[in-house]
Amino acid sequence: MAGQPYPPPMAARGLDHGPSVEQAVSLYAAGYFPMDDDTEAHSPLPFYAAERRAVFELDEASRAALRRRARRSLRAGEAAGWRLVHDVRFDEVLEACALPREPDDGVWITERLRGLYRRLHEAGLAHSFEIDADGGLAAGLVGVTLGRAAMLESMFHWVADSGNVLLARTLDDLAARGFVLCDIQLPTEHTTRMGARLVPREDYEARLRTALS
After folding, report:
1. pLDDT of residue 87
2. How many CA atoms lie within 13 A of 173 on its CB side?
3. Which end of the chain offers a freer environment for a tag, N or C, measured as fewer CB atoms within 10 Å?
4. What is the pTM of this model?
């Protein structure tokens, strides 16, 4: 995975507050994604390109397979009346996504990266996907959308089963709205178990160009 600072190069003087919306869109469209570190606060916010990129396929067969894997969670969500909503609690979702999962985990959604996501949200490009549980927030994720491509950046859940419900319903929602690419950057054990697969960088970039056309 190779780091790529956003253009133009900037001298490391004072705190860097991240790229403009236009610069970030150009990097996303070229196949890069941001991941930050508090120790890099005086350097340009780094963007990366992975040699193998993790994606969830959005065709009906792939989504049906994921729903089968999540069927117990989906039944629980149906029984509880959980709903998928968008952008109701964007800031709350973003802040929750930025929390470390374990006490010794690092934080990659730093303050300046949160600032970038907020600027993208104001431009209509970053969104929160949320599971509403009787008026409360059970799970959420932050994603960036360009054309028919969705880059799901980070996800959390506070209620058992709600994360699987959020993932399944988000993929169904994206497919229903005509999206053809769902990128999750790097796989985890859980996303792999749920059906995410790795594609070579050149294949990913070709699919991204199609989604943006």
Report:
1. 97
2. 16
3. C
4. 0.90
Q: Which residues contact 178 (CB under 8 A, 6 or more apart)?
A: 148
Alpha-carbon distance of 51 to 201, in angstroms, equals 5
Contact between residue 17 and residue 90 where contact means Cβ atoms under 8 Å apart: no
Q: Could you give the dihedral angle defined by the CA atoms of residues 39, 43, 44 and 49, in that order, rounded to the nearest 10 degrees?
A: -60
Residues 153-165, mean pLDDT to the nearest whole number: 96
| Long-range CB contacts (within 8 A, 24+) of 95-100 | 96/137, 96/140, 96/156, 96/158, 97/140, 97/141, 97/142, 97/153, 97/154, 97/155, 97/156, 98/154, 99/156
Question: Distances from the Cα of 161 to the Cαs of 74, 80, 96, 108, in angstroms?
Answer: 8, 11, 17, 25
- Percent of the chain surpassing pLDDT 90: 84
User: Where on the phi/psi map is residue 87: left (φ > 0), alpha (ψ -120 to 50), or beta?
Assistant: left
For 22-56, how does the pLDDT look when each residue is reduced to its tens digit (9 = 90+)? 999 999 999 999 999 888 777 899 999 999 999 99
CB-based burial, 165-190: b 16+ in 10 Å, e otherwise? bbbbbbbbebbeeebbbbbbbebeee
DSSP structure class, residue 9: P
In this structure, the strands spanning 149-157 and 126-133 are: unpaired
Distances from the Cα of 128 to the Cαs of 35, 144, 179, in angstroms?
18, 9, 16
pLDDT tens-digit profile of 72-115?
Answer: 999 999 999 999 999 999 999 999 999 987 776 778 899 999 99
